[in-house]
């Protein structure tokens, strides 16, 4: 498994916590319902988008936890970038192109996370736009229903994480069990 090799150099408790959080968010990002019932593209880019969404949600919850939250968030992001590096190498990207690819992915991660944050801070129109322009950017069909449902998921996941103890998350225990789907979204943006 890819996760085992990412932190094999040293045994740092902070890295263990980051690894536990990263494994949880990647596990949730792989939920088949995103790709079947919400029509997220089941591609490298679509899966990257779902990892970004869930990393943003966890980092958002760690915000305000002071130095420990910053340290865990930084370690989790470092792990994410190491994972990206390893994944790109497995897809055949060589050393010469790696820096370019990682830089492009980092820009995408931070840009998308910022766009989702604005929407989750109460601007439903911004959230709708962020989801449509990022997750469904290559979809040529009508995506309004999927956008609304994924936006609803993000809002429910934000509330679900907000109800969790930051101390538990800082210990590497995060609950991302919020259902991907509910009967109908709370509102259509």
Structure explained in plain terms:
By secondary structure, the protein is an all-alpha fold. The chain has one domain (2-170). Helix content is 70%, strand content 0%. The protein has helices spanning 2-6, 13-29, 32-36, 44-62, 66-90, 95-120, 124-134, 144-162, 166-170. Helix 4 packs antiparallel against helix 5 (66-90). The model has no long low-confidence stretch (mean pLDDT 87).
Can you describe this structure in just a few lines?
With 189 residues, the protein is mostly helical.
Mean pLDDT: 87
Q: Which value, in Å, is the CA radius of gyration?
A: 16 Å
Spans of at least 5 consecutive residues whose pLDDT stays below 50 are none
Instruction: Note the total helix count.
Output: 9
Shape by Cα distribution = globular
Reading the helices and strands in chain order gives HHHHHHHHH
Task: Estimate what percentage of residues fall within beta strands.
Answer: under 5%
- What kind of assembly state do the chains in view correspond to? single chain
Q: Which class best fits the helix and strand makeup?
A: mainly alpha
Largest sheet: none
**In the residues, how many domains can be counted?**
1
Percent of residues in helices? 55-70%
Distance between the termini: 39 Å
Count of strand segments: 0
Looking at this protein, list some descriptive labels.
70% helix, single chain, 189 residues, mainly alpha
Write the layout of secondary structure elements.
Layout lengths: L1 H5 L6 H17 L2 H5 L7 H19 L3 H25 L4 H26 L3 H11 L9 H19 L3 H5 L19
Helix pairs in contact: 2-4, 2-5, 4-5, 4-6, 4-8, 5-6, 6-7, 7-8
């Amino acid at each position: 498994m890819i996760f085992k090799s990412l932190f094999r150099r040293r045994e740092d408790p902070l890295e263990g916590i980051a690894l536990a959080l990263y494994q949880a968010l990647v596990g949730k990002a792989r939920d088949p319902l995103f790709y079947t019932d919400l029509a997220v593209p089941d591609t490298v880019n679509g899966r990257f988008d779902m990892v970004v969404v869930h990393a943003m949600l966890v980092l958002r919850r760690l915000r305000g936890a002071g130095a420990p939250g910053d340290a865990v968030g930084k370690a989790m992001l470092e792990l994410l970038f190491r994972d990206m590096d390893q994944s790109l190498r497995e897809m055949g990207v060589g050393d010469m192109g790696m820096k370019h690819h990682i830089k492009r992915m980092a820009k995408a991660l931070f840009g998308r996370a910022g766009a989702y944050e604005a929407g989750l801070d109460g601007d439903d129109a911004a959230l709708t736009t962020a989801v449509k322009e990022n997750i469904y950017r290559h979809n040529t069909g009508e995506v309004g229903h999927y956008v609304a449902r994924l936006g609803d998921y993000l809002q429910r996941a934000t509330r679900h994480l907000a109800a969790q103890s930051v101390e538990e998350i800082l210990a590497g225990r995060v609950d991302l069990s919020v259902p991907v789907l509910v009967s109908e979204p709370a509102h259509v943006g």
